[in-house]
Write a sequence for this structure.
């Protein structure tokens, strides 16, 4: 009786605490507050609630700690709640939550800590918001997530490592966005991904380099993108079985387009502009090709493909559109002799209809340009324009003006485009970006000015575009970083200045760039970096300096960069490397590139401070004959020692033992002595005469044994590594 009374009392307490517009089911621990007038998360929801449905309310923002009173939630539904902002720590305390639905709201940005605390979350639904930008690290706390739904947002560009932290994600849904450019490492941190949906975007070419990182994905949806051509070996996805390229703009496919995707079984090419296909010799495992809805020309030109279908036993779906005698015939019903060529076929194309005059006041699209109202995009690419056109629709979000001859961008060049997110001005012979050129572009996030003739920039040129996050200035004529330019860009995340003629980084050059995460300076002529040059960029994560004229590691300049995880010094003439040169960034550095430098000597203490955090180290194509002890580099996934002339004598015995214990293929070979030249370091027999030989061999305990080496041996993985150089393989 006592227990019954206690249960009744608890039930009455829970009922009493149920918010007025809600319905509380105490037996199932469910609370429904549907389609009400709530403007804040109720603070009287029963503490033991597991499923909370708040659809159809008006919260506008989810404040920090909004659900601290309901720590047992497993399911939370916030669809159609007019949410525009997720404050940092909004879901803190919901460590049991497995399902979160935020669909059909007005969220525009995902901050780094917006989703903090959701370490058990398995499904995150963000469909139908206004997300334009995902800050790096936004998903870093979601280690259990298996499904991420970002459909129907306003994403234009995916930066490198944007999905870092999603180690078990299996399905990433990015359909119905405005994706135009993908960073080459955008998908590099998704080892468990099996399905990627990129359909209904604005991809103009197959993003092969980004997709090559997904060697476990089995299904790829790329339909409804304006892709016109699939090039040779364009797709290198080792496990891909289903590829959807339907409703694109395909006009041609190379014979070996899929040669590096050996598991491909189903190829969907419906509703394109293909008149035929070559024999897809590289796709040896193909079972079915869908060609319905293409204008197939069943002439003698199609015979090689038709014969290949029969020989490879590939099922083909499609019907002839021409010549007239074969129109409507299925591919499977054709006989080779029927597919004939005639000089009278194909007939000449009819003349294009005359352009219809438009009202002078129309803002539908400038003459000679193409505007897509569905995607809010405008394009005047390669139209030989001398002046920047006006009168684009006011809701334009992506504007592509590449490969014209503008030479200057005048003040107020883009009137009325307050919703513009991405602006492409590459290859336009631009020499001057006038003050006020971007005035009124308050939503601009991405500005591409590569391949122009800019040699200087005034800060006032960026006035009116305070949200700019990605600025591409590579392949211009800068001889120094345009100092002071970034004071009006507090939200700048990525700055690309590769392949200019910059000679040094001076103090003050990066003043104002306090939020900068990625700095790309490859291919310049940098000889010196002032100790305080990088001081304003305390959040810097990636620094690429390859292909410059540095003669030493810029150790002093690396101080004050506590978040730096990637440093590229490749192809600099650094011949000697002294003690503790990476110590300022030792606590954060994960990827270090020291290849192709002509490096002759590395101090035994050069790597002081570095250790388990290092995941990849590139030392290939150098001239040193030995390397420092790296036995504490227990987190290594990639180590490249190819084309290094190791002197395989007894001094190298510790390295020989360490390499033999590593679960990596490192490519190290002996350069000397003569009897060992060309042999792999791990196989060389010259060490058998060394004192102590046998003490660390034949399975005996070795003090240099790494964590990687101690793991059980696994079956070798198929497919290509997503990373550059010599990749991790299983012994």
């Amino acid at each position: 009786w006592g227990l019954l009374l206690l249960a009744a009392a608890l039930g009455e307490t829970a009922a009493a605490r149920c918010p007025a517009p809600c319905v509380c089911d105490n037996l199932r621990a469910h609370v429904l507050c549907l389609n009400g007038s709530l403007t804040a998360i109720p603070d009287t929801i029963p503490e033991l609630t597991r499923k909370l449905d708040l659809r159809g309310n008006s919260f506008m923002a989810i404040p920090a700690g909004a659900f601290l009173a309901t720590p047992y939630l497993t399911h939370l539904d916030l669809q159609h709640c007019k949410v525009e902002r997720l404050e940092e720590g909004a879901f803190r305390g919901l460590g049991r939550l497995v399902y979160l639905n935020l669909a059909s709201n007005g969220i525009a940005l995902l901050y780094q800590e917006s989703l903090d605390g959701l370490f058990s979350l398995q499904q995150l639904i963000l469909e139908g918001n206004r997300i334009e930008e995902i800050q790096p690290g936004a998903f870093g706390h979601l280690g259990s997530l298996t499904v991420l739904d970002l459909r129907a947002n306003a994403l234009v560009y995916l930066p490198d490592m944007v999905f870092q932290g999603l180690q078990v994600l299996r399905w990433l849904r990015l359909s119905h966005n405005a994706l135009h450019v993908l960073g080459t490492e955008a998908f590099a941190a998704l080892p468990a991904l099996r399905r990627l949906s990129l359909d209904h975007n604005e991809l103009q070419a197959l993003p092969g380099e980004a997709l090559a990182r997904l060697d476990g994905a089995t299904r790829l949806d790329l339909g409804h993108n304006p892709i016109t051509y699939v090039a040779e070996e364009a797709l290198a996805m080792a496990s891909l079985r289903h590829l959807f390229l339907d409703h694109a703009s395909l006009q041609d496919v190379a014979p070996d387009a899929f040669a590096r995707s050996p598991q491909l079984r189903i190829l969907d090419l419906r509703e394109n502009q293909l008149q035929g296909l070559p024999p897809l010799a590289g796709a040896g495992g193909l079972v079915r090709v869908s060609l319905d809805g293409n204008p197939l020309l069943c002439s003698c030109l199609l015979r090689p493909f038709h014969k290949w279908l029969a020989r490879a036993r590939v099922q083909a779906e499609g019907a002839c559109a021409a010549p007239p005698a074969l129109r409507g015939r299925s591919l499977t019903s054709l006989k080779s002799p029927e597919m004939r060529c005639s000089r009278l076929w194909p007939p000449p194309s009819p003349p294009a209809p005359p352009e219809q005059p438009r009202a002078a006041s129309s803002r539908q699209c400038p003459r000679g340009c193409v505007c897509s109202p569905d995607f809010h995009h405008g394009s005047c690419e390669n139209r030989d324009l001398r002046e920047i056109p006006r009168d684009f629709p006011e809701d334009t979000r992506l504007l592509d003006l590449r490969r014209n001859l503008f030479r200057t961008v005048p003040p107020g060049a883009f009137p009325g485009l307050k919703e513009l997110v991405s602006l492409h001005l590459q290859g336009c012979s631009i020499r001057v970006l006038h003050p006020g050129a971007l005035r009124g572009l308050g939503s601009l996030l991405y500005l591409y000015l590569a391949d122009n003739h800019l040699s200087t920039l005034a800060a006032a040129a960026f006035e009116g575009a305070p949200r700019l996050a990605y600025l591409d200035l590579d392949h211009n004529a800068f001889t120094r970083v345009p100092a002071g330019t970034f004071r009006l860009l507090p939200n700048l995340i990525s700055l690309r200045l590769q392949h200019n003629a910059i000679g040094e980084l001076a103090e003050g050059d990066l003043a104002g760039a306090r939020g900068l995460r990625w700095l790309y300076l490859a291919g310049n002529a940098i000889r010196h970096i002032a100790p305080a040059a990088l001081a304003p960029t305390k959040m810097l994560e990636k620094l690429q300096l390859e292909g410059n004229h540095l003669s030493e590691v810029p150790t002093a300049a690396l101080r004050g960069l506590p978040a730096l995880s990637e440093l590229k010094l490749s192809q600099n003439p650094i011949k000697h490397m002294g003690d503790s040169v990476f110590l300022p960034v030792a606590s954060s550095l994960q990827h270090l590139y020291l290849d192709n430098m002509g490096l002759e000597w590395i101090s035994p203490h050069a790597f002081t401070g570095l250790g388990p955090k290092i995941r990849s180290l590139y030392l290939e194509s150098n001239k040193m004959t030995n390397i420092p002890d790296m036995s504490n580099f227990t987190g290594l996934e990639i180590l490249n020692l190819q084309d290094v002339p190791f002197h395989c004598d007894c001094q190298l015995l510790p390295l020989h033992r360490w390499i033999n214990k590593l679960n990596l293929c490192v490519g190290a070979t002996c350069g000397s002595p003569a009897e060992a030249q060309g042999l792999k370091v791990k196989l060389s027999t010259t060490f058998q005469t060394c004192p102590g030989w046998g003490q660390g061999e034949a399975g005996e305990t070795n003090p240099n044994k790494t964590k990687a080496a101690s793991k059980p041996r696994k079956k070798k993985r198929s497919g290509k590594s997503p990373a550059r150089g010599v990749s991790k393989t299983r012994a």
The two ends are 65 Å apart (CA to CA). Confidence is low (pLDDT under 50) at residues 1-15, 343-362, 698-731. The domain at 18-154 is CATH 3.80.10.10 (Leucine-rich repeat, LRR (right-handed beta-alpha superhelix)).
